[in-house]
Amino acid sequence: xxxxxxxxxxxxxxxxxxxxxxxxxxxxxxxxxxxxxxxxxxxxxxxxxxxxxxxxxxxxxxxxxxxxxxxxxxxxxxxxxxxxxxxxxxxxxxxxxxxxxxxxxxxxxxxxxxxxxxxxxxxxxxxxxxxxxxxxxxxxxxxxxxxxxxxxxxxxxxxxxxxxxxxxxxxxxxxxxxxxxxxxxxxxxxxxxxxxxxxxxxxxxxxxxxxxxxxxxxxxxxxxxxxxxxxxxxxxxxxxxxxxxxxxxxx
Length: 251
Hints:
This protein is an alpha/beta fold. The chain has ten helices and five strands, in the order αβααβαβααββαααα.
């Protein structure tokens, strides 16, 4: 599978798990080959199964609204799912189904090599950050196995509860700034750049412990306040206190 189009052809013919038996269409994923931003959801729903495209139902409409709110469209991003066929009655995918589809998602990530992976919901988040609840890790950028991962709650959750919708919109608003930082980090250093002291390695903590990019960026120190003026000296009779040769009088 050397191209995204070839992955799609293989997925459409896949029978590696029980989900293929009930599908109308497989949903491999869609988007440009050079997308900087990869969204990973859970699995296709009713509308996705009918059309063979990811996020085309109500949650997809919300996702498009979110993209529009940050000045982007779905044509600029790649959208995939953990599993490529709809689970019956929209139930959660089981581990064997996720495992059967993992080879396709792994290869999509390799070929895209995105600057940022946005996980939508608990299943895709658990793929990169296992054992953590989405409510605990959402909205913080992590570096996992060399990839930058930004967990967000699934758009479908925002359709059910207003407070979750507000949290999703808040997290989504961070994406442009994260992309700006990651673009700068990915640019090769200019040959004419001023030589600086070597920086600490990016992976300053153990590689098996995901961490936040913002935790590794030092905030600029606030400017120091000007020192208070010296109090007026007390009037005392002058005493002979000439400085030694080579010294200066302090007062």
